Every structure is written in structure tokens, then in C-alpha cells.
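So, could you explain this one?
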Amino acid sequence: MEHTEHPGHEGHQGHQHHEHRSGHQDQHVQHSGHSEHAHAGHHAHGGGSSWRTAAQATLHCLTGCAIGEILGQVIGVGFGLHNGATVALSIALAFVFGYALTARGVLKAGLSVREAAKVALAADTVSILVMELIDNGVMVAVPGAMNAGLGQLLFWVSLAASLVLAFVVTVPVNRWLIGRGLGHAVVHAYH
């Protein structure tokens, strides 16, 4: 595919730092609703990643994590499980739902279940781990949050705040990973 000049890219020859896996650039041209280099925000010229791309990747990851985290917290608190068991359940479910959402997306691209699982593990493990450390850390650190009932505002405000903080802390982590072709960057070749 021949590269043409467009705003912000004048004078750049070759674009060696824009190498993409599995014909990613060609897929973007053919991807419905996208024009050539519509995803220019994915990669900064230093080989890094844009904040917008990192935020989108984090939001995608947070969706799966939040489903698992909230479900785990609700089950644990609702059934009166020990705080350690509630945290363990929340973490396990966050990983399951986080991986499942990513795998679902790449399965649509035609990958086998085994390959989709590999992509999901590579794409989301660090992001989910950081989010889970933050959101469960907040839930444990807020006095009474883990012991508050499901009908108490303290539980829900603490849980919501923990997820927001997890997002804020994880965005720069994902930006760093994507800028190095890691994390969510491995998923880009499949959509």
C-alpha cells in the first residue's frame, strides 16, 4: 500500500515505525467506516501510543473487569463471605469476564478458540492485574466498605470510586504497553 502525504505526516518517508502485524494497515483501509489512516491516533511518531487509544483500551478492559468485580463483590457481600474470599472471587471473575470480552471480539475475526485465548491473555493480563490491584485495594482500604451491606451507600460509592481510580491508574500503563506493541496493541491486528 502506497503511503500518501496527509496533515501531520508531511515529510515522513517509509514510516518504518508504523509496521503492523498481519496486514493491519490494509485491514484498516478496508474496515467499514474508516478512511486511510483514520486510526492515526493509535501511534505517535515516537513509536508511542496516544492517550485516546490508551483510554479506549482501558475502557474496553474495564468493562469486563467491572462486570466481574461488581459481580464478585455483590456475591461476596451478599452471601457474607469473608473479605479475602470476596476479593478472590472478584479478581477471578474480573479476569474471566475481561478475557471473555476480548476473546469474543477476536473470535469474530475468525481466530480459533485457542488463538483467541492467547490474544486475550497477551492483550489484557497486565491491564486487568493493575485494575484489580487498585479496585480491590480501595475496597479493602475504605473503612467499612467490605462490611457494608448491598443496601448501603458506602458499599456502592466505594465500589464506583475504586473502578474510576483503577481506570485512571491503568490508562498510562496501557499507553506504555501499546506504545511498545504490547497489551491491547496485539488486538488491533484483528479488527
Summary: Residues 51-190 form one domain.
